[in-house]
Each structure stands twice: as C-alpha cells, then as structure tokens.
Amino acid sequence: MLMVVPLSRMCEGERGTIRSLELPGDISERLCGMGFVNGEEVQLLKVAPFGDPKVFRVKGTNITLRNDIAMWILVETSSTSLSSAREGSYTVSAINGGWGFRERLKQAGIEEGISIRVKENTGRRVQLEVRGRILYLPRGQAMRVIIKER
Q1: Which domains does the chain have, with CATH numbers?
Q2: Structure confidence by residue, pLDDT tens digits, 96-137
Q3: Most CB atoms within 10 A, among 25, 55, 60, 147?
Q4: Is pLDDT above 70 for 1?
Q5: Could you give the 3-state DSSP secondary structure of residue 139?
C-alpha cells in the first residue's frame, strides 16, 4: 500500500518518490535546482540527535533540510516505522541502529527480510508475532524498525 507523507515524517533509511512541493516560489525553485522534483527518488540518510535537521539523498547528492521546510515536500512511500503500524502482516525492510541494537533484535528473531505480524499497537508499545513467538517492543525501539506491507 502506497501512502503520501511529508518528507519530515520519513524514517531513517526509508526511500520514497517526491509527489509535490507545496512551498513558496523562491524556496521551491531553489529545491528544484537541487533535485527535489516530482518523480525523483529521495532517501532519508541521517537524523540529527534531536530530530532536526535531517540529511536526504537526491540524485546522488546529500542535502540537509530542516523539518519546517521538509514538511512541505510530499513523498509517496510504501515503508513506515513499526511504531506507526496497524494490525497486519509486514516484512522488515530496514533496522536503524547500532550493532548492539541490531544484535538484540536478531536474538529475538527480528532481522531484515523476515515476516512479522503486528497484533496490537497501543502507541506506547507494539505487540508482534515473529516466527510463532509473541514479542513486545517499546515505541522508541519500534520507531527504528522500518517495515513494508506484504
């Protein structure tokens, strides 16, 4: 399922296709000159420690944008973070975090490419089924797991 979200709401590692820029002319023109045009693929590479600014890759170039600008660029994506998932079946497409975090998830059975089933999402934690086991992930950890619908 494809959804259109503001560029500022993308998760680290996520890719999408630019659908529209809803900014004033001079800012929009400048961003178009840097490659932010309809149909172009964009990827969120890095997020600053407090969430703003963010580094995006467009046409092979890394560009840093603040959230107050990125929120006006609409992107079509099929990925979302596990923290915002509804009940259903998904495939893990990326895990953002250091080696220790990735290893803890791997020990729990969560790694890139596997299928998971979200059973409940309370907003504070996500209950999921992985390889027949029921697991709970707090919201902060779930935000770092990028999923796609199967």
Answers
A1: 3-77 (2.30.30.90), 80-149 (2.30.30.90)
A2: 888 999 999 999 999 988 999 999 999 899 999 999 999 999
A3: 147
A4: no
A5: helix
In this structure, what is the dihedral angle of CA atoms 12, 139, 66, 71, given to the nearest 10 degrees?
A: 100
Distance CA 62, CA 110 (A): 30
Assigned token pair, 39? 């149909």
- Record the tokens describing residue 121, joined without a space: 């999402």
Q: How far apart are CA 5 and CA 76, in angstroms?
A: 6
Contact 116, 147 (CB under 8 A): yes
Amino acid at 80: T
DSSP category for residue 25: H
